[in-house]
Amino acid sequence: LEGRKPYQMMRVELPVSLDCFPEISAGKQRFTLRFVNADMMADRGKQIKKDIQFTLVLCNF
Predict the structure, then answer these.
(1) Do the Cβ atoms of 39 and 45 come closer than 8 Å?
(2) How many other β-carbons are positioned within 10 Å of the β-carbon of residue 2?
(3) pTM (two decimals)
(4) What is the C-alpha to C-alpha distance for residues 57 and 53, in angstroms, rounded to an integer?
(5) Cα dist. 5→1, 24, 40, 44, 58 in Å?
(6) Integer Cα distance of 26 and 42 in angstroms
(7) Where are the domains of the chain?
(8) What is the pLDDT of residues 3-59, one digit of tens each?
(9) What Pfam families does the annotation carry (predicted)?
(10) How far apart are CA 58 and CA 42, in angstroms?
């Protein structure tokens, strides 16, 4: 990420066929993404350990 650009929004696009959702952690200079199973029966989803193809869009206004 460029430190000079104040990104205000992040969009993560996933294929509809995947049964997961992104969990995003962000700080001032970086962010992390991990993908978690969308199991509604579990208290907490489990991290997916395989590669996931996704599209990331960073926006500023």
Answers:
(1) yes
(2) 7
(3) 0.73
(4) 14
(5) 8, 19, 37, 34, 10
(6) 25
(7) 9-59
(8) 677 778 899 999 988 889 999 998 877 889 999 988 766 677 789 999 999 999 988
(9) ZapD (PF07072)
(10) 31
